[in-house]
Structures are given as structure tokens and as C-alpha cells.
Amino acid sequence: MDCLFCNIASGKIGAELLHEDPHTVAFKDIQPQAPVHILVIPKKHYPNILETDSQEIKHIFDAIKKIAKEQNLDDGFRVVNNCGELGGQTINHLHFHILGKRQLKWPPG
Fold first, then answer.
1. Is 25 within the bounds of a domain?
2. Is the residue at 50 inside a domain?
3. 76: left (phi > 0), else alpha (psi -120 to 50), else beta?
4. CA distances from 102 to 34, 39, 43, 64, 99 (A)
5. Does 31 map to a domain?
6. Which terminal CB of the chain, N or C, has fewer other CB atoms within 10 Å?
7. How far apart are CA 26 and CA 29, in angstroms?
8. Is 67 part of a structural domain of the chain?
9. What CATH number does the domain containing 36 carry?
């Protein structure tokens, strides 16, 4: 399997890591949709949220909380997960987007 995010998590492909712990890594999105746009991924490969478990999700959200504080996102931010092709997932490795530092409208756009 040749997964882009697995290669980033293992260090085979370089990325500007903003966070790393035993379970997760986080790095800047290369096509940011907001002034702060960070991807948080598990180090272990899961194709999407349907293939993981609650303990792994807890590790990811613990990382998201830490990153949000470090990025001074106290005034608000959005966490997004796209699941499957119809949900807009383009890389088949579970990941969450942290978007912040601008007014985020609903619906997005």
C-alpha cells in the first residue's frame, strides 16, 4: 500500500509537523482553506472513520484540543472529517481538518 499520509506519518515524506505524539501527527494543509488549516491524522492507517474505534478517535481529538490551544484558536475554529467519495474524502487515510482564524460560514463556501 502506498498511502501519502502513512508516508508522512512514518517520516518517509517530509512535512512541517506541528504536532506529534505516539498516536497522531499534524501538519499544515498544502491547499489551505483558511489562515489556519491543519490536518490531524492517526499514525496507524484507517481508510476512514468507519474503520476505526472510539479510542483512536479520542487520541485524535486530544491532539486537536492541544493544537487549537497552541494555535490560539480560542475565538473559534471548525473541525471537519470527510468520509468516503460522496463525503468529499480525497485521501483514503482517516484525517481531520482544523480550520481557523477567519469567519467560517455555514454552509461552507
1. yes
2. yes
3. left
4. 6, 17, 29, 18, 8
5. yes
6. C
7. 9
8. yes
9. 3.30.428.10
Can you name the residues that pair with 25 across neighbouring β-strands?
A: 20, 41
Q: What is the pTM of this model?
A: 0.92
Residues of the domain holding 87: 4-100
Q: For 3-47, give the DSSP string.
A: -HHHHHHHTSS---EEEE-SSEEEEE-SS-SSSEEEEEEESS--S
Q: How confident is the model at residue 109 (pLDDT cuts 50, 70, 90)?
A: low
Residue 96, H or E segment: strand 96-100
The enclosing H or E element of 93 equals none
85/82 Cα distance (integer angstroms): 8
Query: Can you say whether residue 86 is alpha, beta or left, with left for phi > 0 and alpha for psi between -120 and 50 degrees?
Result: alpha
Q: Which residues are catalytic?
A: 95
pLDDT at 108: 62
Describe the chain by its helix, strand, coil percentages, rounded to 5: 30, 25, 50
Instruction: For 71-90, write each residue's pLDDT tens digit.
Output: 999 999 999 999 999 999 99
Q: CA angle, 77 as apex, 108 and 35 as ends, to 5°?
A: 80
